[in-house]
Amino acid sequence: MGLLGSSVTLAILRSSRGIKAVGYSHRDQTRQKARKIGVADVIADDPAECVAQADVVILATPICTFETIFEQIAPELKDGAIITDVGSTKSMPHKWAANKLGKNVHYVGSHPIAGSEHSGLEFARDDLFSGSRCILTKNARTDSSAIETLKDFWKLVGCSVSVMTPAEHDKIFATVSHVPHITAAALVNASRDDHVKYSGKGFIDTTRVSSGPENVWSDILMTNPANIARGIDRVIKELTKFRDAITSDSQTKIEKLLQNARMKRAKLIEYKMRNKELI
Amino acid sequence: MGLLGSSVTLAILRSSRGIKAVGYSHRDQTRQKARKIGVADVIADDPAECVAQADVVILATPICTFETIFEQIAPELKDGAIITDVGSTKSMPHKWAANKLGKNVHYVGSHPIAGSEHSGLEFARDDLFSGSRCILTKNARTDSSAIETLKDFWKLVGCSVSVMTPAEHDKIFATVSHVPHITAAALVNASRDDHVKYSGKGFIDTTRVSSGPENVWSDILMTNPANIARGIDRVIKELTKFRDAITSDSQTKIEKLLQNARMKRAKLIEYKMRNKELI
Questions:
Q1: At the N or C end, where does chain B have fewer CB atoms within 10 A?
Q2: pLDDT tens, B154-175?
Q3: Where are the domains of chain B?
């Protein structure tokens, strides 16, 4: 029942299509707060009670907890239940699901591209997913009707849905999310406190994502190491091109590198505007 | 009469303290547009006419044009005139001013920490400087009453003012602005078009500054090479720490690097909120 979990249940309540939303948190304090705010129809007191009658189970915990949770809930699940999650890497969750969940249930990965640098149910919103994209991940064994059900579900809460393999997903999101997160953190770590107080909006925006919770992000980085290492190498290569152009005083090279970035980003913004993904 | 120049004259018009604002652009089309929109009291048709009666002259062109402009306007300036600029590096402008401007006028560097990734007078705003910091730069020979006049001026248009040497300025802004700009551009250049279309708000924000105009930014990078090269090296070092921690599967190290960034940035945001520099 953090930012994402509570936003999922709030979005379900808002959709009012007769779906009963049951929430669970391992923290007693969070369960009490969730009941008080009313972020779900029911807040269960243990995971077994939470999942026992569920048609769809959505994990919204740090990724490295999934393996244990799969093992813990497996005996409680209904035949035909669909298990998914909202985590930012997908290869490891698919592996854990294959090993720990029974053949009587269906795992599909979900990654709604929504959230913020904040965490906790205080920041949950019933419209967090409106206008967002949600990636579903499947492998050769994934049940196709489970995919269709989850497509309908994420569309119901406002997402447009894409489907790909976990390997494709993890490659793409290393580039567009995990490495940018590391770059933001590296920029902050490379700067002195007495210098950053002079920063403008540029530094603030460039580093925003590094304010995200480290327990969630360390799990993301731990479960996608090869793609991230390659991504860091690519960024270092591009930084080195700038360094070389600047120290050799080559205006032509500097302008070309800057222009390439500006034009690529302009194309991206245009695409996002056309698809109404920027609000 | 671009984004910054036009915002300066609009801010002067708004302050209505009997200051006459005279603008000039070398582009005929820009002068016509500036007259039509009324961004200054007068739009002059040549630089000599623009500066002849000026008490304060503010250059708002790409930095590498300053040397030529100083040479061009020097014979036209009134005795005691104050010359400044709104450029993002300060050591080279101070050198050029010492070489090209007469002893009868005073140069002080100004760097208002305001602007955006947009350019052109269409984006000018009379409140662009409200709540911003403006850095004034001086060396041992800088006239102290000229500094006082410029302090008053930037405060009038809404800035809080700090004074430092050009060397200090260029060291600080390599860290908080020039290197983050390069990092943003490097992130974009390191990513594939068919991947970035899946990006969320994180990538968009982390790379925003790289949409800035390359002619303005190449001049900034060209005039601060040593500080920027050292800054890039620091960022590469921090990226390499992440790479090592991730490829050696060290959760403790990853969490520590992420936590360090999160806590440093939290301190920065707290400082900015306290000083009302974030709106």
A1: C
A2: 999 999 999 999 999 999 999 9
A3: 3-164, 169-274
